[in-house]
Structures are given as C-alpha cells and as structure tokens.
Amino acid sequence: MICKSKPTKTQSKTSDSKEKLLEKEVQVSLLSKKTAAKYSQSSISSQKKKENFADLLTWTEKYRPKVPNDIVGNQSIVKQLHDWLAHWHDEFLHKKNKAISKKQPDGLAKKAVLISGTPGIGKSTSAMLVSQMLGFHVTEVNASDNRGKADAKIIKGVGGNTSNSIKELIGNEALSESKDWSKYAKSVLIMDEVDGMSAGDRGGVADLIASIKTTKIPIICICNDRYSQKLKSLVNYCMLLNFRKPTKQQMAKRLLQIAHAEGIEVNEIALEELAERVNGDMRMALNQLQYMSLSQSVIKYDDVRERLLSSAKDEDISPFTAVDKLFDFKGGRMRMDERIDLSMSDPDLVPLIVQENYINYRPASVGKDDNGIKRMNTIARAADSIGDGDIINVQIRRFRQWQLSQAGSLASSIIPAAFMHGNRETLEPGERNYNRFGGWLGKNSTLGKNLRLLEDAHIHILASQTSNVDRETLRIDYWSHLVKQLTDPLRIMPKDAAVQKVVEFMDTYSLSQEDLDTIVEISKFQGHPSPMDGIQPAVKAALTKAYKQGSSLRVVKTADLINLPGLKKAPKKRIAALLEPVETGLGEENDDALLENEEEGSNSEETDIAFNQTGDKKPQLDLLTDNRKGMEVQLDLKNEEGKSSGWKTTPASKARGSRSSEKGGRSGSSGSKRKR
Amino acid sequence: MLWVDKYRPRILDKMIVHEEVAQNLKKLVSEQDCPHLLFYGPPGSGKKTLIMALLKEMFGPAAEKVKLEQKAWKIDAGTRTIELELAMLASTHHVELNPSDAGFQDRYIVQEIIKEMAKNRPIDSKGKKGFKVLVLNEVDKLSKEAQHSLRRTMEKYSASCRLILCCSSSSRVTEAVRSRCLNIRVNAPSAEEIVKVLEFIAKKESIQLPPEFAARIAVQSCRSLRRAILSFETCRVQQYPFVMNQAIPPMDWEQYVSEIASDIMKEQSPKRLFQVRGKIYELLVNCIPPEIILKVKLLSELLKKLDAELKHEVCHWAAYYEHRMRLGQKAIFHIEAFIAKFMSIYKEFLIATFG
C-alpha cells in the first residue's frame, strides 16, 4: 500500500532489505494479508488497476504504516517494543541462556507488555508491525471478538471458541514446530482493548493474567487507559509502554505526505490546525481529511477550522467548570447548543450546583436596581425554573421519558443561568467566592438516615402496643413531647428519681437507648439549644447504667422485632441470644395467638416489676395490672401447660426471680407448641 | 404512659367526640358484616381510635392483641423480582399497614397482601368472622397506580377481606376507590368538644383545670385533639397548678418555622433567602414533611403578619408551589421557589407602599 502512494518516498525511508522483509511478512501474515498481498503485487502493474482498488479503502487503511519507522511519533517506544519482542524467546524459553545473561534491565524481564495511549495514535499498528517485522505469526484478539463463538476460525482450537484456542496457543509452543503451525516460526498474541474486557470474556483480566504466567509465546496487551480499575492487577505482570500523542508538527508532516499523494492542495498550517483539533488522533485526522477532500480539492485553514468546530471531540468538562461557564458574566453570549453541551456534561450534578449557587450571582441582565427588587424578581423566576427542572426530572426518571432530558437541563440549568449570570458575590462572611457543591445530596442522605432512625423508634413504639401512631404524627405531634418527657426530669428532678422516671417512661414505650439518642438528635435545630443541654454528665451516665440494668427484661418486648429469615438486617445481638427466631418463623394461627399472649403477659409482668420497684401507686399501673388479670384468664383457656409454668406467679419483687419465671414460661409454652 | 394513649377510648361506647359516628358504626357491624370503609378527616380527629374501637367491636378483645411484624415481600413482577420490607401490625383478625411506605412500589404491596389474605381465609367457626380486615393507612399517599390496582382487588376478594382505608384527605383518593367504600367523615373536633375531653382527663387525673386555660389549649391545638391532649400534659409537667397566663409551649418545629417566617418578613434579600434555605434544610433533615412546612405552618405564619391585600395572592402561590412540590421530588427546590416568590412580591409591595 505504501508503494502506491509514492514509491520514491517509501524507498527513501526504508532500506531495500527491509522492503523485502516486509514483502515476505505481508504475504505470511494472516491479518489483512489478502489486500496487502494483492496490493503489493499489483503496485508494480498498471496504474488504473491501482486506482480502482484504492477507492475501496479508507485512507486510514490505505496509509496505515507498513514499517515501524512510518509510525508517527513514539519511535523510542516502538524501539523498546521491538527489543522486548526480539529477545523474548532467548529470555523465557531458553532458560539456560537466560541464567547467564541476567544483565538485562528489569523491564524486559516481563512476559507480557501493556501498551497504553489515547485512541488513534498507532498502538495496534505498532504492535502489528513490530511483530511482523520480527517474523512472528500474529494472532490478534480484541474485545469485540471474544464473545462470539464463531471466532474459532482464527485458530482452530479444541473447544472451538477463542478462549480455548488462546489457551492452546499460549500453552503449546511445541505446536509451532509441528502440524499446520509449522510454517510459522514463532507466534505472538496481541490482546487488543483489554480495558474493554469484562468478566464475561473468558474470566476477564484474571484469566489473562493466568495466561501470562504460563505463556510460552509473547503477549502484547493494548489498552486506552492504563489506570483503569480493571487493569490494576494486570499492570503488575506487564512491561508498561505508554504511547504519547504525536506533536502537531509530526502529524502535519505525515498528513502532508498523504495529501500530496492524494493530490490535495493544502498548506501545513491548515494541517497543523487539523492535527490540533483532533487531539492527537491520527485516525480521526485522516478521516476528516478524506471527508473534506470529497467536496474540495483545495483545503484552507478556514475550512479546517469551520469543519472541526462542530465535530471536535467531546472534551471532559467538570460540572464546576460547566456551571462557571454558564454563569459567567459573558454567559449571555453563548450559543444555545454550547449551553446545552455544558449542562449535559453532567445532567445530574450541574443542576444541583446551579441550584446551590444561583442566589450568589448578581445578575448582569438586571441593569440599575436601586432596592434589589429586580434582582429578587429574577431570583424568583430562576427558582421557578429550577422547580420545573425537578418536575421534568421526575417524569424522566419515574416514567422513563428520556426524550425530555434536554428540556430538563434547559429548565434546571440553562434558564436559571440565563437569568442569573453575572458576577458572583459571597453571601456569608468568610465564604470563598467559588461555587459550592450542591448541598442537596448530603442533606438528602442525612434525611434518609434520620428517617430510618425515626422508623426504628416508631416500630419500637408500635411494638410496645401502648400507642398506634403513624410515623409522621409521631414526629410532628408526639416528638417534642417525648423529648420533654425524656429530658426534663433529668434536668430538674433529683438524680435517682429522675433516672427512674425516664427509664420507666422508656420502658412503657419500649424505647431503646438508641431511640433516645434518635429523639434527641432529630430535635436539634441549628441555633437552638440541644435538648440534652444542661444535663449533668453524671446523670446521663446514671441513666445509661439504669437502662442497662433493666435491659434483660426488655428483651421480650422487642422480641417481635426479630427479622424474618432471609433479610439483610442482622437481628440485634441481645435478642438473638435469647430467642430462637424459629418461634416467630413458625406461624400457625394458633401459635401466633399464643405467642402474643406470652408477650402480653410478660409485658404486664414487667410493668408490674417496675410498679413494685417504684412503689409509687399510679392509676395507670393499676390499669395495667387489671389488664394482666384479663390476660391470665385467656391463658388458662388457651394454654394449660403455660399456666403451670409460672405465668400466675405473683408479681416478683426482684427482677432476678421474675426473669427466671419468665424463662420457664417460655420454655413451657414452646414445649406445648411442639406437642401440637 | 402519655395521656393521649392512656385515655384513648377503647370501645365505641366510650367515645366522647364523634359519639354519633360511633353509634352508627356499632349498628353497622351488629349484623356481623360490614362494607369496605373509608375514614377521612384531618389529623388528630380520631380516625385511628374509631377504627381500633370498631375492630374491637367486631372481633372482641382479640383484635387488640396485635403483633408487630417486619414482613418481607418477594413479588414476582414479570421480568424481575421485587423485594420489599414493610412493618405491619397484625392480629388474628386484622392486618394494619402503611402501604405508602413502599414508595413507588406500593402497587405491588397492595396487590400482594390482599391476595395473600384471601388465601388464608379464617375459618368460620365459634362465632368467628369469615373475613379478615385489612387496615390501610395513608391511602391518600398511595400512587395512582396502587389505587387503581386496589379497586380491582377490592371487588375480586371482597368475600374474604374487608378494607378499612384511612386518610386525611379524600380528594386524593380516586373516585373509583371512594365509590366502593362507605365513606365516613371524621370531623376535627370543635373547641368545645376538645375542652370536654380535657376536662374528662383532668377529672381522671384529679387536677384542677381552669376552663379558660382549657379553652386556650383547645384554640392553640388547631382542633387536633391529639395535639391538645399532648400540650395539656406538657403544661401539666411544666407548671402546676395552672396559672391564668401560662404559656402553652409550641412544638419545637413549629417554633422554628415561626422564626423562619419572621426572618422572611424582616428582610427580603438574596442573603436572607440563602439563610432561610439552610433553615428549611434543617427542618427537612429533622423529618418534618415538606407539605406540613409549606402549607400548614409557613403559610399560616406568614398570613398572620401579612397585609390583607396580599393574602389572597400569597395563598395562591403557596397552593401553586405545593402542587408542584407533589409533582416533583426535591421538596426544597419548591419551598425555596415559594419563598423567593414571596420575597419578591412582598418587597415590591413594601416599596410601593412605603417608598
């Protein structure tokens, strides 16, 4: 193919001997061999035939470098690759030699090489060319091949699919001396696009690493991003070669040769502009050049500029930069598509940052504004539009109306920015005059956490069966009262009495200590004193201690919180220790009723204990004891065995005793259950 | 135990407020059967109390023996399996749950649970009911889809289960569901009724309650009986015997919203808007529902201090942004938009009036 372009030029570049070698290689190689071979033969024959054939090729194929020296830039790396491959067999297969010549630098001691670099700068081409030049037989596998079973044709492996054939290929160096492999002296495996390799591809990277460890042929891996998470483990097993983008001068030089070969009139400055625009991507530059050559034979600087403005590669903009640009003082002059590009650079984060910061801008669109009315109006309109954006976002996400995404970014970022763009000013002293990160995400996750805590407390309260509120009411109506009930006594009453009262209250509603923390935590408001303020640390400690003392009694109350099997949340330790979850799991109607009775009974018993301990005759406790008597009757009817084992014991005066009786009751009742 | 829970009437006969409703309900279930019911009314009016008493009337004391279950649902929805976890209170005769907790997947809960209840139909013996009762709370928060699936299952399984729906606003329950139920409106109790209840409690607790003070509590409770009783108890804890001008402490969050309102009235500037945003966030993070902040509290606080001619417009905008908040997802955006709008209107008004 090179010969086509200008035989004189290629000859000047490559020596005669190399040319010959290449010719041989091209005939031998599996890849693109047909075209290449045909072409090299036909190059000597008539010009017309050549022309016909050339039309079929894109320029990127047509002018693909044929010898390593043709590669634009990165010559030193190509040389390194060449050395590595050339010494590979001495290094790894003929171990005796290797033992002697251990002076080699470390990098060369790896069995595989990892070439990285941005797309279109000739990584695959270099790997291919170097291998061919050294007389290797090339097997190229890229990510897109791996999944298909039809790939068996590349090399006829045992199992018929690529993975097997690769295994065989790397395992059997001997094959190269026998069978149909015999005509190739040596093989090399080129793994292209390894960073696109997923777990579905033959065990992914792990398998590749295993292959590298055992390989008897050199492996060349190629990727775009060496720092990709997937390749973390791979890099340790490979010699790393990083291809850099060629300079624009280097690229322009090569482009100029091609342009001349194609008979296009173009000057070097235009080509340099082209090279710069494509960001080092030779392939793209060639595609662009070919595309332009279709419509015009003379290409000027301006043409290049114009053409590439729209087709420039997407650059990565951080959402902050995007917001900065949108809100810039001169932001009003941007074109609509530029704004859409900016806001779509991250359609989730940009709106959040816009929302966080729009108040900070002094809108340039508002001229003279004595009392800030106009600014306030503008802010209101911007806020309105942000609200629209939120509504659109719901439609997009919940009802999958993705066609609305542009409208969404228009409403949530572009319109507010159009209203508010101007100079940024700080609202709080000491604030840095830069855009803040959107606060919504953090607040939302705190809210989520608090809701979870609230739900926990809510469930505890429901479990206590004293109240039947829903969560919202609990927060709105009960909450401040609960706070008062739980903290006020600690502040005003003497220590022991206060602690007792609070613990008692917590028990009535089966609140745990975590719930107490939750209740305090969720009642804190910025700029208001915390409900815990003014409580002596000693009192707090006493409370904790008192609560812990009674904790063995509370177990049964919260027992119904045991999670059913197969749930993520692990049951709380103390519950798990005392109750076999099977009890709740087994669920016949009758047994359930029984269990409830059990709980009911123990609840009332517990209150009885509290009652005895306090010795404080309160009507509410009387009510409860009455309740308990009712319960007993029920138990008599339903569970005769349970009765015998101590539910009827008079309210125990000591926690210890009652607990044992409770345990007895439990075991007795579960025994009765088993009988059924 | 708090007084609210302690003096909650357990049976229909002991109802102090909504006596008539209670008696009607009693007659309704005396026939051993009942239609689907929909209770609606403002918070603190006694819906839940009525429902629990009704259940007791129907099933006897067994209905009170509830057990809390954290139930996991595995629902096969065509291509995928949805796993949901929901707390429910269950007795042998009824199940109570909050399907709207499942968020946008509430539809599956509604379908699944009714199906399951239909499967385990209790046996009709020894005077037991041949059906189970399913109490669904906050049906007005159910998504439209869930309500639609509800209406089908309501008919299909009506032989084996009765639904008792409970919500604060019937307008957000679809027509179809409403027409399948017997609608029972539970009014907010009047101030006199609240006073009556407070006096009843005072008598039981044997404390002196001056009638004027009771009236004040009733007024401040915004006709929510629950709130009245709670603040009554708070006052009792705070200071007893009561004095005439004793302050009735507001809820923590109410106080905070009032502060926000006065912040907004004092100054209308970007800076103030920014500070207010921080405070609103504070409320939201403390689990105060945004609708309550905007509609119930912030608006009424603002209206208190507003000139008459602006009231209409401000109400309009509050309704407008509340609606948008329901459509949207990030409540703060809409509350902020309302505040910005208010600031802009109010500022304009101030300058037009006072120059």
TrEMBL record, chain A:
The keyword Nucleus applies. CDD domains: AAA (cd00009), HLD_clamp_RFC (cd18140). Residues 596-608 have a biased composition (Acidic residues). One of its GO terms (cellular component) is nucleus. Coiled coil: none annotated. Residues 615-643 have a biased composition (Basic and acidic residues). Residues 596-676 are annotated as: Disordered. May be involved in DNA replication and thus regulate cell proliferation. PANTHER family: CHROMOSOME TRANSMISSION FIDELITY FACTOR 18 (PTHR23389), REPLICATION FACTOR C SUBUNIT 1 (PTHR23389:SF6). Heterotetramer of subunits RFC2, RFC3, RFC4 and RFC5 that can form a complex with RFC1. This is Replication factor C subunit 1. It comes from Apostasia shenzhenica.
UniProtKB/TrEMBL annotation, chain B:
Keywords: DNA replication, Nucleus. CDD domains: AAA. Gene3D superfamilies: 1.10.8.60, 1.20.272.10, P-loop containing nucleotide triphosphate hydrolases. Residues 33-189 form the AAA+ ATPase domain. GO terms for biological process: DNA repair; DNA strand elongation involved in DNA replication. It is found in: Nucleus. Its main location: nucleus. InterPro entries: AAA+_ATPase, DNA_pol3_clamp-load_cplx_C, DNA_Rep/Repair_Clamp_Loader, P-loop_NTPase. GO terms for cellular component: DNA replication factor C complex; nucleus. One of its GO terms (molecular function) is DNA binding. May be involved in DNA replication and thus regulate cell proliferation. Belongs to the activator 1 small subunits family. Heterotetramer of subunits RFC2, RFC3, RFC4 and RFC5 that can form a complex with RFC1. This is AAA+ ATPase domain-containing protein. It comes from Apostasia shenzhenica.
